[in-house]
Write a structure and sequence with these properties.
six-stranded antiparallel β-sheet, eight-stranded parallel β-sheet, binds 1-deoxynojirimycin, single chain, 16 helices, alpha/beta, about 525 residues
């Protein structure tokens, strides 16, 4: 197996608004990330993925881009970005940036031009359609953020499509000019030296050409989000998308060299059989969210084994797996499992076969923040108050975007003024500096796991489930490693296939030789070096 950096890397996701503020506006910035590079290095991660920092009116906090080739003043300047990139590279860290190709901001000059009138040369850069006979939207499509996916443009009498906010009009990916323009955006950043992109909503790029209605979802109930009213066979995962992925891959390959591949990570919320097709189309790492929406809610050994085996069985030798437990759209890991099992989940993530992506703050067990109603900022939450979301984008993402607590100084060392979102209430004890002091903290566990994962057999060794007693999820990696995770708060045990040595326990307090029956304490995960 050829060794490629992105197979061996741990990717760390930073939400720039919330990592480190340096210009006293309560919002994080690129200079803040630069200053925190030594922390990332000390964690042992190999690559960072930065959520968007482009020019934006911030209706969806940067996922509404008004200039793809500039930095929003809130975050700094292009020079700040260049400095961040060169310092990251000097430290041996790769930098992936967020590419948002499905939609622009409604303030983007392309859209302003497109909506000017029906004969605009950029009209076909977006998805325009005539009203239904009753004057309403062209079809029944619903947006992720509540309400129809269509908004009427009074001036021209046509509707435009937006899978998200009305201020995020969808680009028309069937139009080759649009694809070319996005490829140029990619080249702009690749020339600056970025190591690749996390591509936003990759599975939504194309919609049904005939704009057919979506079929109803029999499981939808009042109180659930609007998007869930239908099954999505026309708005998502259209076959054309694979060709678009292939084209983007070619652009990345123009800039790739051995050891310096430029990489595409794709945001894709799909079942495994559909997901792996994106890898076969050329996306290096199509995000596998199955632990997030199937694993964490049903945290049992049989369920986890089913998920991992299903995925492993669908991958060809040319595909490479990846795993993730959280991101800026999903509830925090520690809030889903509690801290004790969050540590076990970290052991799982870093010992499975495949590239792990880690969300900032999860290494200190940051739980969901508490956001008083008057401080809510997330447009998804504001538009869908009280609704229940689904695996994709649940309403209410502010709680998982709270500022990183660094130390016990005012505002947790994040900022010198009140941050844009409140700090978590326990920031005085749960912060990086305090966790550094405690040798058994989750922070130290994550660091140890990342270091352990550098072992070639843990990186590349085959995965095989090891049948164990109820409550224990165990698996082999290659011939030399056995991972045993006690998913319960009670003592459990496991028959070892042969003797070995504990390389790491989630409790960070033992490294003894073991054979016969391995005892697992409550909430303990153990990595054993066999033989
Ligand atoms: C997915 C992103 O992860 C999310 O944060 C954003 O709101 C939507 N795409 C729209 O870009």
């Amino acid at each position: 197996m050829a060794s490629m950096w992105w197979k061996e890397a741990v990717i760390y996701q930073i939400y720039p608004r919330s990592f480190q503020d340096t210009n006293a506006d309560g919002v994080g910035d690129l200079e803040g990330i630069r200053r925190r590079l030594p922390y990332l290095k000390s964690l042992g991660v190999d690559a960072v993925w930065l959520s968007p920092f482009y020019k934006s009116p911030m209706r969806d906090f940067g996922y509404d881009v008004s200039d793809y080739c500039d930095v929003d003043p809130i975050f700094g300047t292009l020079e700040d970005f260049d400095l961040l990139l060169s310092e990251a590279h000097a430290l041996g860290l790769k930098v992936l940036i967020d590419l948002v190709p499905n939609h622009t901001s409604s303030d983007h000059p392309w859209f302003l031009e497109s909506r000017r009138d029906r004969s605009s040369p950029k009209r076909a850069w977006y998805v325009w359609a005539d009203p239904a006979p009753d004057g309403g939207p062209p079809n029944n499509w619903q947006s992720f953020f509540g309400g129809p996916a269509w908004t009427l443009d009074e001036g021209s009498g046509q509707y435009y499509l937006h899978q998200f906010l009305p201020e995020q009009p969808d680009l028309n990916w069937r139009n080759p000019e649009v694809r070319k323009a996005i490829h140029e955006v990619m080249r702009f950043w690749l020339r600056r030296g970025v190591d690749g992109f996390r591509v936003d909503t990759l599975w939504l790029l194309a919609e049904d050409l005939l704009l057919r209605d979506e079929p109803g979802n029999p499981d939808w109930r009042p109180g659930m989000w609007d998007r869930g009213r239908h099954l999505h066979i026309h708005m998502e995962d259209q076959p054309e998308t694979y060709a678009y992925v292939r084209e983007m891959r070619f652009v990345l390959d123009e800039f790739s060299e051995p050891g310096r591949e430029r990489v595409m990570v794709g945001e894709i919320y799909l079942p495994f059989p559909q997901l792996v097709r994106y890898s076969q189309a050329g996306c290096h790492l199509p995000f596998n969210f199955h632990l997030i929406f199937r694993g964490l809610p049903d945290w049992r050994a049989e369920n986890l084994a089913r998920i991992v085996e299903e995925y492993e069985s669908l991958l060809t030798p040319w595909d490479w797996p990846n795993w993730v437990l959280g991101n800026h759209d999903q509830p925090r890991l520690a809030s889903r499992l509690g801290e004790a099992q969050a540590r076990v989940a970290a052991m799982l993530l870093f010992t499975l076969r495949g590239t792990p992506t880690w969300y900032y703050g999860d290494e200190i067990g940051l739980p969901n923040g508490e956001i008083p109603p008057e401080k809510v900022q997330d447009p998804a939450a504001l538009r869908q108050k009280g609704r229940r979301g689904e695996h994709g984008l649940p309403p209410g993402r502010d709680p998982v975007r709270t500022p990183m607590p660094w130390d016990t100084s005012p505002y947790a060392g994040f900022s010198s003024v009140e941050p844009w979102l409140p700090l978590n209430p326990d920031w005085k004890t749960r912060n990086v500096a305090e966790m550094e002091k405690d040798p058994r903290s989750m922070l130290h566990l994550v660091r140890r796991l990342i270091a352990l994962r550098k072992d070639q057999e843990l990186l590349y060794g085959a995965y095989r489930t090891h049948r164990a007693e109820a409550g224990v999820y165990a698996y082999h990696r290659g011939e030399g490693w056995l991972v045993a995770l006690n998913l319960t708060g009670k003592e459990r045990g496991l028959e070892l296939p042969k003797g070995g040595q504990v390389a790491l326990s989630t409790h960070l307090d033992r490294e003894e030789k073991v054979e016969g029956r391995l005892l697992l304490r409550p909430d303990e995960g153990v990595v054993v070096r066999l033989g």
